[in-house]
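Model it.
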Amino acid sequence: MGESIASRIVGVRFSKVGKVYHFDARKIESLRLGDVVVVETSRGWQLGEVVDIINDPVTPPEGTWKLLDRLATPKDLLQRQSWQAKELDVAATAKKRLHELRLVGVKIVMSEYSYDGLKLTIFFSSDSEDKVDLKSLRSDMQRVYTPAQVELRQIGPRDVAKILGGMGACGLEARCCSRFITEFSSISIRMAKEQGISLTPTEITGMCGRLRCCLIYEYENYVEARKLLPKKNKRVITPDGEGKVIDVSPIREMVLVELPEIGRKEYHKDFLKPVDELEAFENKANKTSGGHGGGGCGQCNHR
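Modeled.
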């Protein structure tokens, strides 16, 4: 189970690779990492696992932390398993009714009962960016699954990919979002450009149809490494003479330079000097020597 938790603020996860939510555990006297607890959520009463602790809690959301209700009992765990066994049938029924209603572009992803069976959430996705009207589907499902309160919840393509799992676009047997990503970050095309990755859609798009989450993994490293390298088309001095920067490899700290006599050749950044920097140094040196030289000659002529 792990070590006892001294703090009253704990992190709870409701699915294997789900987001961690924090709660006030003051109602529970003895609590350990790995314990299963009963919590009231927007999707009804749920069972979650204690996975985290905040030693120095930040300001709680909206002025207060939600309270954990109690530790789960063996009966609670069996009850949850019982309702989970019905979730596939619910999803199948929803898909069938969706087809009968001819709601094109809408897909049922999964269904989820609260652990006590009093709330049933059906997750769906849509090809349209606009809000989808599924009142008729909800009414039909409510009629079939009363007394549970039925809710239809739309989720995005990245959430769908996470739930369904499967092989990643890169060939890994399991997608990153299904293995360890608990919260999705904002990904931009700039991240691919910064890393010199081909902008071909198949190279940067995940199975969800969105930009791959992995584009952010090394992005900051590339940004910092690129600051130490000359920019493309800049003139630089190499051990073999002056040339123009054609390309850079930030992580390797290598620069590809075009030289008049040699052609293209790679150099480590430490062996390069920007032309403008060298010119500035030479101009400064010339001014200094010119000033002293003129003064000396004047004195000689005076004599």
